[in-house]
Amino acid sequence: MIGFEFATSSQIIFGRGSIAKLETVLPKEVKRILVISGRHNAENNPVMQALVGRDLEIHTIILSGEPESGFIDEQAKIARKSHSEWVIAIGGGSVMDAGKAIAMLAANGGETLDYIEVVGRGQKFTRPALPMVAIPTTAGTGSEVTKNGVIIVREKSAKASLRSPLMIPRVALIDPELMVSLPPYPTAYTGLDALTQVLEAYLTQKANLFVDSLCENAMRMGFSALPKVFANGSDLDAREEMAYVSLVGGIALANAGLGAVHGFAAALGGMFDIPHGVICACFLPVVFETNYLALKKANKKHPTLQKYGKIAELAGYGENGLEALFTRLYELRELFEIPGMRKFEVERSMAGEIADLTANTSSIRGNPVALSRNDLIEILMKCV
Predict the structure, then answer these.
(1) 248-295 pLDDT, tens digit each
(2) 339 vs 200, 281, 333, CA distance in Å?
(3) Verdict on whether the full-model pTM lies above 0.90
C-alpha cells in the first residue's frame, strides 16, 4: 500500500439547513468579521440572516467575476486595518478562493506576488490564515476544503495559486438548499468541474487508497445526479448529491492533485475571461480519452488503465463499457450546451502558446501520463 498524507478542514458541516448552524460555529468572543460574497448574495445574504442576533462589527466585500491579485492585496490591507478576527466567504469557488487568499495575506502581510506559485516569488507562508468559514453556493470547485486559492495575475497573463496547508478554511459549511436557485447552465458547468475533479484526482500520479475510496462513491453519484439537477434545479436529493461530489472533489484534489484538464483551465483562465467550470467542462471528454489512449500506447499493462474500467462501471456501463463512457462524456457536453473555446476568442493560432503555458502549470504535473507539446496542441484544437 502506498503511503499518503491527508489534510482537510477542522470541521465539516454538511446537510440541508446547515446555514442555521453558523451562529454556533462562530466563537462567542468574536466581535469583528469580514464577509465576502458574490453579487448573487449581495442583497439577501444568508450569512447576515444567520447572524442577525449577534452583536458584530461586519465588513462586507462583494466580488464580481474571478479574484485578481490587485483586488486581493487591497482587501487584505482593509482586513488588517479593520482588525477582522474571522472571515466568512459565501458563494462559488471564486468567492471562497478570494476569502482564503485575503485571510492568508491579512495574517502574513505582503502581497500576492510575494507568495503565488509559478508566476510569483513563491515565498512560504509562516502564519496560519485568519480563521475562516467557507460556505459554497455552487457544487463545483470544492474550494471550501482546499489548501489553495486560485488568483488571476493580469500583468503576467496567468492564473496561479496561493498554496499552503495553513490556508485550509477552519470550517466548511455545505448547505444544498443554498444551491437551489443556481440556474441550469452554471449548474451544469460547475457540476462538470466537480466531476472532473474526482476523475482527475482518482487517476492522478499521486492517487492513494484513501482518496480513491472517496472518489469512487462520488463518481457514482455524480454521473447519476448531474443530469437530474440540470433538468430540475429544485431536486434537493440531486442537489445534495452534487454538493457531496463537490466536497469530495475538493478533498481529493487537495490530497492527490489534478491533471491536464485543470492545467488548461489555469492557462486559459489567465489569458481570457472564461468561467473556470466552462473550460473544465469543454476539455474533460477530450483529455480523458487522450490520457487513456496515451497510457495504453505507453504500457498496455499500466495499472491506471484498470481504473478506467472501474470508472465505466461506476458510471453504469460495466467494466467493458469504456466506449460508452467516452461517448457519454461528449454527450453531457452537448446536453449542457458547453461551448467551444472559440466563443471566448481563443484562436487555433494560439495553440502553441497555450500548450506551453499549460505545460508549466502545477496541475498538469499530476496527469497520469506525460503529454507532449503536440498532444496538448491536438487537445486544444479539438476544443476550440
Answers:
(1) 999 999 999 999 999 999 999 999 999 999 999 999 999 999 999 999
(2) 21, 9, 8
(3) yes
**What are the extents of the domains in the chain?**
11-179, 184-383
Can you say whether the dihedral through the CA atoms of 157, 115, 250, 75 is positive or negative? negative
DSSP helix/strand/coil, 158 = strand
- Grid coordinates in use for 37? 460574497
Cell of 339: 461551448
Superfamily of domain 184-383: Dehydroquinate synthase-like - alpha domain (1.20.1090.10)
Residue 381 CA to residue 290 CA, distance in Å, equals: 13
Could you tell me which of 212, 195, 194 has the C-alpha nearest to residue 204? 212
Cell numbers of 229, please? 439537477
Looking at the domain covering 11-179, what would its CATH class be?
alpha beta
Nearest-angstrom CA–CA distance, 149 and 97: 4
Secondary-structure percent of the chain, ordered helix, strand, coil, rounded to 5: 55, 10, 30
Q: How far is CA 211 from CA 170, 191, 253, 292, in A?
A: 21, 19, 9, 20
Grid cell locating 122: 513563491
